[in-house]
Specification:
Blueprint lengths: L6 H5 L3 H24 L5 H23 L4 H9 L1
Length: 80
């Protein structure tokens, strides 16, 4: 998964891509937590980053659900 996903980048993505990225981020978080529990984790900061990426994805999905931001609006704002 790419580092530093921003909400603006996520807003331009279609729903199915967001679901895929969410699934990948959750799998990565699981693996990082497992590594932390077994003492094999080398980058503790990555845990925080992945949690924030998951939160951003959920936020963008919720904005669309509530009609606050649509895919077209997100793409138009990103072009400015």
């Amino acid at each position: 998964m790419a580092k530093g996903l921003t909400a603006d980048e996520l807003r331009t993505e279609p729903e199915d891509v967001l679901v895929t990225k969410l699934k990948e981020a959750k799998e990565e978080l699981f693996n990082l937590r497992f590594q932390a529990a077994t003492g094999q984790l080398e980058s503790h900061g990555r845990l925080r980053t992945v949690k924030r990426e998951i939160a951003r994805i959920y936020t963008v999905m919720r904005e669309r659900e509530l009609g606050i931001v649509t895919v077209a609006e997100g793409a138009a704002e990103g072009e400015k």
